[in-house]
Amino acid sequence: MLGRKDTAEAVEKRMRINKYIAHAGVASRRKAEELIKEGRVTLNGKTVMELATIVKNGDIVEVNGSPIYNEEKVYYLLNKPRGVISSVSDEKNRKTVIDLMPHVKERIYPVGRLDWDTTGLLILTNDGDFTDKMIHPRNEIDKVYLARVKGIATKENLRPLTRGVVIDGKKTQPAHYNIIKVDHEKNRSVVELTIHEGRNHQVKKMFESVGLIVDKLSRTRFGTLDLTGLRPGESRRLNKKEISQLHNIAVNKVK
Ligand code: URA
């Protein structure tokens, strides 16, 4: 007779196809739906037409013609140096964050992006659901940046950032700033900015909207994580406690 555990294991594993793709770390669930709508996903050789398609044990799912597999979920923290791009590959053969982590066997990818010239904290994982949760602005996870800007930062010129400024036709969520240093001689300032969103070049565009041009940018904190002990280019695996702390702050902030 089968015990409870044996019975559970004997039950065929079934999963909705977008969830399967997210579990495999290929894309978030929402992005997986887009891939399906674009006809880029096949199940056992046939293009998937239905978002509600179920994947069973032994099924072969391919995205853009490559088979995908579910593997153990892993989470890494990287101190990204300048001059490296935050994607898994690059058509111009530039160095990517993945090139900095040859020891990682799983197919990880960055949670959000940092620009080529931005340094600092980047999480990489193969967990699509975790990624969705970390980058969704509704979850209000603090992303803290240290920016050196050309010009003199004052409470007056930075105030609009706390209410939200319009960039690319859409208002940003209120941000928090802290003026760290003002150098009148060199006409530049250092400002810490905390935001919850991750729009394209967001910090640079936010400063630009108040007349300050960023010439150096670094992400110093992401939720409960900082870069203590990691030099530029170094990475380490996150432990279970760190991962659950990130899950907790995201969950607790959902309205
Ligand atoms: N905002 C930017 O402008 N650049 C980054 O790399 C990250 C946030």
UniProtKB/TrEMBL annotation:
Family: Belongs to the pseudouridine synthase RsuA family.
Residue intervals of the RNA-binding S4 domain: 15-78
Gene Ontology cellular component annotations, sorted alphabetically: cytosol
The protein's name in its UniProt record: Pseudouridine synthase
Gene3D superfamilies reported for this sequence: Alpha-L RNA-binding motif, Pseudouridine synthase I, catalytic domain, N-terminal subdomain, RNA-binding S4 domain
Coiled coil regions in record: none
Keywords recorded for this protein, A-Z: Isomerase, RNA-binding
EC number: 5.4.99.-
One GO molecular-function entry: RNA binding
One Pfam family here: PseudoU_synth_2
InterPro entries for the chain: PsdUridine_s_RsuA/RluB/E/F_cat, PsdUridine_synth_cat_dom_sf, PsdUridine_synth_RsuA/RluA, PsdUridine_synth_RsuA/RluB/E/F, PsdUridine_synth_RsuA/RluB_CS, RsuA_PseudoU_synthase, S4_RNA-bd, S4_RNA-bd_sf
Gene Ontology biological process terms, A to Z: enzyme-directed rRNA pseudouridine synthesis
Keyword Transit peptide: no
Principal EC category: isomerase
